[in-house]
Amino acid sequence: MINLNKDNLYTQPLANPSAFEFDAAVVQVFPDMIQRSVPGYQTIITAIGLLAARFTPKYGVCYDLGCSLGAVSLSMQKQLDSSCKIIAVDNSPAMIEKLKPAITSKHQQAKIELIHADIRDIEIHNASVVVLNFTLQFIPINDRLKFLQKIYQGLSAGGILILSEKLCFENPQQQRLHTEMHHLFKQAQGYSAMEISQKRSALENVLIPETLFQHQQRLYTAGFNSSEVWFQYFNFASMIALK
Ligand code: GEK
Predict the structure, then answer these.
(1) Residues contacting ligand 1 via CB (< 6 Å)
(2) How far apart are the two ends of the chain, measured CA to CA in Å?
(3) N or C: which end of the chain has fewer CB within 10 A?
(4) Whether pLDDT at 228 is above 90
């Protein structure tokens, strides 16, 4: 079990807030940070476990790309048959170090295999489910299509990609409204205006959101038959793309 240290990384004014990184300081507070920053995070995690069970046959393989501290992998493990395998990948050494001891595959559970690598470099084969839970937003825009094409090729017929992302909106009024509502959500979770603003600066040019239309167009170009939003809470959405 991973403990819930409180995220206080941006409580003090920083002269020069540096670009956001998944380093040891972030990893230390990550579960608290993501739950208080991403509206609906826990609902999405639970639903991914259920979707994995719906689409994964016996001896099936699921991928959790950008696994962080393994919330998606552990949720899938709870639901999957013990013959299944989950491949969890992240390129942050601090995340992987902290996750390693938290991963236990008891005899009666699907096995979780942990890989320290860039998700653009790994091979994907015979996947029933691939999950990108708030990860694609950190991949440079120019690499996104090629990466999704690789995922499409690695999925079995009838497999799915679950893609969760922070969205932006073409309409400026919608953009303002959703940004404001997200900030109000964070305030309601106990973050101060200064913490919200400093975190926002740190994420600039690191987390690059796109519109729902851009995502759906790219998924279609990558080969997916269809993609639908199954969950949205302000500017955070999760899609299911079908092969
Ligand atoms: C969750 N899915 O709890 N290769 C591998 N990992 C990467 C790469 C890359 N190129 N780029 C970023 N990451 C998780 C939450 S967090 C989302 C995902 C957030 C990893 C990065 O190290 C981090 O662990 C994760 O993607 C993004 O459901 O913090 O907003």
Answers:
(1) 22, 34, 66-68, 71-72, 89-92, 95, 118-120, 133-135, 138-139
(2) 34
(3) N
(4) yes
d(C-alpha 151, C-alpha 161), whole Å: 8
Q: List pLDDT tens digits, range 5-54.
A: 876 766 656 656 666 677 888 788 889 889 989 999 999 999 999 999 99
User: Residue 3 above 70 pLDDT?
Assistant: no
**219 and 242 co-located in one domain:** yes
Residue 91 φ/ψ, nearest 5 degrees: -105, 5
- Which residues, including other chains, have CB under 8 Å from residue 81's CB and lie 6 or more apart? 56, 58, 60, 110
Residue nearest to atom 29 of ligand 1 (CA): 34
Sequence letter at residue 226: S
Query: Predicted confidence band at 105 (pLDDT cuts at 50, 70, 90)?
Result: low
Whether 82 and 117 share a structural domain: yes
Q: Report the sign of the C-alpha dihedral through residues 10, 16, 21, 27, in that order.
A: negative
Give 20 Cα–ligand 1 centroid separation in angstroms: 12
Which residue is closest in CA terms to ligand 1's atom 30? 134
Residue given tokens 């940004």 in the structure block: 179
Ligand 1 atom closest to residue 132's alpha carbon, by position in its atom list: 2
> What's the pLDDT score for residue 11?
64
* Ligand 1 center to 199 CA (angstroms): 16
Question: What residue numbers bound the domain in which 82 lies?
Answer: 65-122
Residues 118 and 139 placed together within one structural domain of the fold: no
Structurally, the chain folds into a number of domains equal to: 2
